[in-house]
Amino acid sequence: MPVRPLPALAAFAVVLLAATSAPVAQAQSKRDLAAAATLQQRMDAAEKRYRDALLAEDEDTDGAVPAAALTEMQAVVAACAKQKGCELPKMLATYERLLKATPQADDGDPDSEDEDPIDEGDLATGNVPGSADASALLSDEGQRFVRMVQFNPAVQAGIRRWLTDMRPSLMDSYENYRYMQHLMSPAFKRHGLPEALLFGIMAKESNGKVHAGSRAGAVGPLQFMPATGRRFGLGDDGTGFDTRYDPAASADAAAQYLTERMAQLDNNIELSLAGYNGGEGRALRVYRESGGRSFWDVGVYNQFPAETKDYVPMVVAAAWLFLHPKDYGIRWPKVNSRPAVIRLQQPASIYELTICLGNYGSRDGYMRALRNLNPRWDADSSMPAGTTLNATTRIASLYSRYCTRGQRLQLAEQLVASNVQSALVRIGPMTSTGGDAVANADAASATPVPSKPKPQPPKPKTHKVKRGETLSSIVRKFDCDLGDLARANKLKAPKYAIKPGQSLRLEGCKG
Asked: Out of 128-142, 184-198, 226-240, 300-314, which region has the weakest mean confidence (pLDDT)?
């Protein structure tokens, strides 16, 4: 989208205002008032078109749309200056609002084949020397990665898999990573490790899903086991939150771990990855016993389990595709990943936000992005008003537009509060549908014999947590007061962490 020339248009409107600032003494005719109202309607419609294009942020809207809206506004302002009864100051207020809402325009064409689709120029932070995009990686860091790995048939087979049946997983991994890139890539930069390697590990380990977990107990976007995580500073942070789920903390731990492995293994990426997946002790022993041979040496390769033999080339293949997307016909999903924050204006859960945000500009909506950027919160936990959430500029815009007021917010609240049990009604015991209709009628008219009420089972006093349960789901199941239940079991907000097999005292519960 071309640069939006709002300041120049605002100056034009100011000149018109100065030229027409003399008070109009005579009463306005109905025709003048109607013409002024029509101009205001045109201005409102043009502003809406412009704001809709601004919300799209170059990804779904051609640059001609906002340009046409601006041209229309300019024409309306010019006509307003000549029309009796038209409120030119009100028109200027529209320009002022748009000036405040307009971000810096991009200089490039996002659809250009010559631009790398991940280069937005927004990824550099104080901890990242230069932009963390694929073109920068290929010029320096990327070329170093290419020299450090072997592009052999095993890696080519991995690329084939990523580009065929695993292509959806690759695309999901990229999209998820883009939301977290500003949190994760600085750690690899600080340790001198290629960002492509980070992407490859994350794609293979979790597809970029922060809350992923394995049956063996590894969790988080980079799948740390509890003991390994503790070695590198991951684990319970004192509030009940496991920092293995934190994108920035887990990336820093992974960078430390790989730096340690590569120092032991003569900077061999494949063997370091084998240690990441198959155990550092095994990798070091095989390296020493082989005299420092390559991972691809048959004697070395065959000493690793099948999972590791698959893992290493798949990580290298994903990293290779991250660096060379155009060579393989890849058009990465366009992701608006500019960081922003949301301050909740009323209590909400991530489920509720996901519904009211919609999926404008995203095929799958924003639940995964919100969960990845805010791993401390369960999706169904109600977050109090004033809570600050990590988000993107687009999510923040959609939140302000749809999740603070209006029909969509009401629908989201209604859907989140819905309960299947409330749809069921009790109107007495069912009668048999078989046999003679007259006999059934006689039976229905007969005086029923009162029966003794069945004794109600005692209310449970404790509950053993099952896999997949959260405190919120237990609150709903037993009709509990969240605060009473948390205090009775000494659970700390906001995570209210529980684990399978844990016994909870059902204090403050009715059912």
From this structure: 128-142
Kindly state the helix (H) or strand (E) to which residue 25 belongs, with its residue range. none
| Domain co-membership, 31 together with 169 | no
Residue 239 has, within 13 A of its CA and on its CB side, a CA count of: 7
Would residue 242 count as lying in a domain? yes
Q: Angle at the Cα of 445 (from 442 to 448), degrees rounded to 5?
A: 110
289 and 384 assigned to the same domain:
no
- How far is residue 244's CA from residue 225's CA, in Å, rounded to a whole number? 9
Compute the Cα dihedral for 184, 189, 193, 195 and give only its sign. positive
Q: Report the interhelical angle of 407-417 vs 350-357 (nearest 10°).
A: 140
For strands 388-392 and 339-343, give the pairing: antiparallel
Contacts of 428 (CB under 8 A, 6+ apart): none
pLDDT exceeds cutoff 90 at 273: yes
Q: What is the CATH number of the domain that holds 200?
A: 1.10.530.10
The answer to the question of residue 124 being in a domain is: no
Total count of domains within the chain: 4
Range of the domain at 355: 339-417
If you search the block for the tokens 């000036």, which residue do you land on?
99
> What mean pLDDT is reported for the chain?
80
The segment with the largest mean pLDDT, out of 71-80, 254-263, 445-454, is: 254-263
* Eight-class DSSP state of 224: B
Domain-embedded: residue 109: no
Query: 78 and 51 in one domain?
Result: yes
**Which region holds residue 57: left if phi is over 0, alpha if psi is between -120 and 50, else beta?**
left
Q: How far is CA 245 from CA 137, 182, 236, 422, in A?
A: 27, 16, 10, 35
Of 3, 1, 11, 2, residue with least CA distance to 96: 11
Residue 426 token pair: 């009790």
Q: Per residue, what are the HEC states of 291-342?
A: CCCCCCCHHHHCCCCHHHHHHHHHHHHHHHHHHCCHHHCCCCCCCCCCEEEE
Task: Express the helix, strand and coil content of the chain in percent, nearest 5 each.
Answer: 55, 5, 40
Asked, for residue 451, whether it belongs to a domain, the answer is: no
CA distances from 78 to 20, 33, 71, 75, 225 (A): 11, 17, 11, 5, 67
Task: Identify whether residues 401 and 496 lie together within a single domain.
Answer: no
pLDDT digits 0-9 by tens, 479-503: 787 777 888 888 876 667 888 889 8
Helical segments of 164-246, H only: 167-190, 195-205, 226-231
**Structural domain ending residue among the three candidates 417, 446, 475:** 417
Full-prediction pTM beyond 0.90?
no
Instruction: Please tell me the predicted confidence (pLDDT) of residue 266.
Output: 93
Task: Using the structure block, give the residue that is written with the tokens 């306005």.
Answer: 28
Question: CA-to-CA distance for 78 and 359, rounded, in angstroms?
Answer: 38
Are 388 and 342 a contacting pair, CB within 8 Å?
Answer: yes
How do residues 339-369 score in pLDDT, each as one tens digit?
Answer: 999 999 999 999 999 999 999 988 899 999 9
Given 382, 417, 452, the domain boundary residue is 417
